[in-house]
């Protein structure tokens, strides 16, 4: 299970999530980038500086 690094709330990662996708904490709204480590998905704080997110 993955917990928010900010507030410790549970963050649910969609089953079909892909690496690099951004998920946000339902509680505090912190944004995290999903990455894969070994066979498990982990999260790290998403950097929202700059604007190279899609578009
Ligand atoms: Zn949170």
Principal-axes geometry comes out as: globular
Strand content: 35-45%
Order of helices and strands: EEEEE
Distance N to C terminus: 31 Å
Short characterization:
It contains no helices and 5 strands. The chain starts with a strand and ends in a 10-residue tail after the last strand.
Provide structural commentary.
It is a single chain. With 55 residues, the protein is mainly beta. Helix content is 0%, strand content 36%. The protein contains no helices and 5 strands. It has strands at residues 2-3, 10-11, 22-24, 31-37, 40-45. The strands form 2 sheets. Strands 3-4-5 form a 3-stranded antiparallel sheet, with no helix packed on it. It has a two-stranded antiparallel ribbon with strand order 1-2. The protein is globular, with a radius of gyration of 11 Å. Zinc ion (ZN) binds next to loops.
List the defining traits of the structure above:
two-stranded antiparallel ribbon, binds zinc ion, 3-stranded antiparallel β-sheet, single chain, 55 residues, mainly beta
List the helices and strands and how they pair.
Elements: E1 2-3, E2 10-11, E3 22-24, E4 31-37, E5 40-45
């Amino acid at each position: 299970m993955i917990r928010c690094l900010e507030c410790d709330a549970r963050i649910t990662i969609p089953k079909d999530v892909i690496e690099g996708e951004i998920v946000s904490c339902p509680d505090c709204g912190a944004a995290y980038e999903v990455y894969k480590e070994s066979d498990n998905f982990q999260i790290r704080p998403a950097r929202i500086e700059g604007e190279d997110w899609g578009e």
